[in-house]
Structures are given as C-alpha cells and as structure tokens.
C-alpha cells in the first residue's frame, strides 16, 4: 500500500524515534508498504518518520546508483543488489575522510544540496526477521544509510548545511510545509492541515 510521505515541517520528522520489537503490528506489511511508497516516489531510502511513524525503521534499495558510470565495477556490483530493511539501527562508528555528495529527500522535494559525511560506517541493526547484524559499509551505501539513520534521530539533511544555505532555502522550505509544491507522489503537509 502506498503511504503518504510526510512533508518538511511535520513534528514527526524531528522526533528521536522509539525501538520496536518483533511483535510490532504487521511489521512485514509495513516494510512492504514502505518499499512500495519509496519506489512510487523514485527514492532509494525511506524512514518510518517519513510515513508518520516515530519508530526506528528504515528501508533502502540502492540499486538505482548501480547505473552510475563514474563508479568502479565493484561498487556498482554492491549497489545493484543492496536492498534491506534496518530495524533498531545504531551506527557504532563513522570513520574516514569526509566527502560531499548532492543529497535530496522525499520529505523535502525539489531541494538538493551537497552534504559532507564520513566515508565509512559500522552499524548494528535487526532485519525484518529480527536477526541481528553488525556490518561495515563505505561509499554510497554508507551515505544512504547515514541519511536514513539521521531520519530516525530526528535530523534532516538540511540541518547539515551552512547558515547561509539555510537562510537561502527558508522560503522554499516554508512553501513545502504549506503544500505549495508540485510532486508526483502522495504527500501529507503539516500546515495545509492547519489551514482547514
């Protein structure tokens, strides 16, 4: 089922989320709906707060990046098959050189900016069968995980921009929260609700 994606300005995007257990109601259905919602919006990641749920869950399918010809063959291969759900994730380490990459967000449509992040992560999480994993990632996979992980910590990519960039984006962000934006996927706007 395609869920509405929560727009910038909704308080759920600023909440530090709660852990869940394997008895969370219809967890498999939720994970499937999150993937379907993400694909419908042409995203590569989606976190539970983005569909209005303050829980520690996000999904990623990095396969669209595998077609990037600037990447080496090994990284293309890793990206091609990278589709996972992350439950109760904790980033244990972030290491390596910081590097900038142009990021966007389904909750903040039509805004893309360069964000610097460390290149490697070590993460602990449970999959949808509640099997625990501790894994290390680098490059684009690490970046997508870091972006989605930020969502479950109540952080948006725009928080990582310079004060000047934030000021320049203020009007666009206000318009997003009011629903004054065109998108080709279902969204829920916080200030549009208040206006009724």
Automatic annotation (TrEMBL):
Lineage, uppermost ranks: Bacteria, Pseudomonadati, Bacteroidota, Flavobacteriia, Flavobacteriales
Described purpose of this protein according to its UniProt entry: Removes the formyl group from the N-terminal Met of newly synthesized proteins. Requires at least a dipeptide for an efficient rate of reaction. N-terminal L-methionine is a prerequisite for activity but the enzyme has broad specificity at other positions.
Cofactors, names only: Fe(2+)
UniProt keyword list: Hydrolase, Iron, Metal-binding, Protein biosynthesis
Record bears the keyword rRNA-binding: no
Entries under SUPFAM superfamilies matching the protein: Peptide deformylase
UniProt superkingdom: Bacteria
Record-given protein name: Peptide deformylase
GO molecular function: metal ion binding; peptide deformylase activity
Cofactor: binding comment: Binds 1 Fe(2+) ion.
Binding positions for Fe cation per the UniProt entry: 105, 147, 151
Catalytic residue positions: 148
InterPro entries in alphabetical order: Peptide_deformylase (IPR023635), Peptide_deformylase_sf (IPR036821)
EC number(s) per entry: 3.5.1.88
Reaction catalysed by this enzyme: N-terminal N-formyl-L-methionyl-[peptide] + H2O = N-terminal L-methionyl-[peptide] + formate
Organism field: Sinomicrobium weinanense
Residues forming coiled coils: none
Pfam families xrefs: Pep_deformylase
Family assignment from sequence similarity: Belongs to the polypeptide deformylase family.
Biological processes per GO annotation: translation
């Amino acid at each position: 089922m395609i869920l509405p994606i929560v727009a910038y300005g909704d308080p759920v995007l600023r909440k530090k989320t709660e852990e869940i257990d394997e008895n969370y109601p219809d967890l498999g259905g939720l994970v499937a709906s999150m993937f379907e919602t993400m694909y419908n919006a042409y995203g590569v990641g989606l976190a539970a707060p983005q569909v209005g749920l303050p829980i520690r869950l996000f999904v990623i399918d990095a396969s669209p990046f595998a077609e990037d010809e600037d990447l080496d063959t090994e990284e293309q291969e890793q990206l091609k098959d990278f589709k996972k759900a992350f439950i109760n994730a904790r980033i244990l380490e972030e290491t390596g050189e910081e590097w900038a990459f142009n990021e966007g967000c389904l909750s903040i449509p039509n805004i893309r900016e360069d964000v610097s992040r460390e290149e490697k992560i070590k993460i602990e999480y449970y999959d949808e069968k509640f099997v625990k994993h501790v894994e290390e990632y680098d490059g684009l996979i690490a970046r997508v995980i870091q972006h989605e992980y930020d969502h479950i910590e109540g952080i948006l990519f725009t928080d990582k921009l310079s004060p000047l960039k934030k000021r320049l984006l203020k009007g666009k962000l206000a318009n997003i929260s009011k629903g004054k934006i065109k998108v080709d996927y279902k969204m829920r706007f916080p200030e549009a609700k208040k206006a009724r």
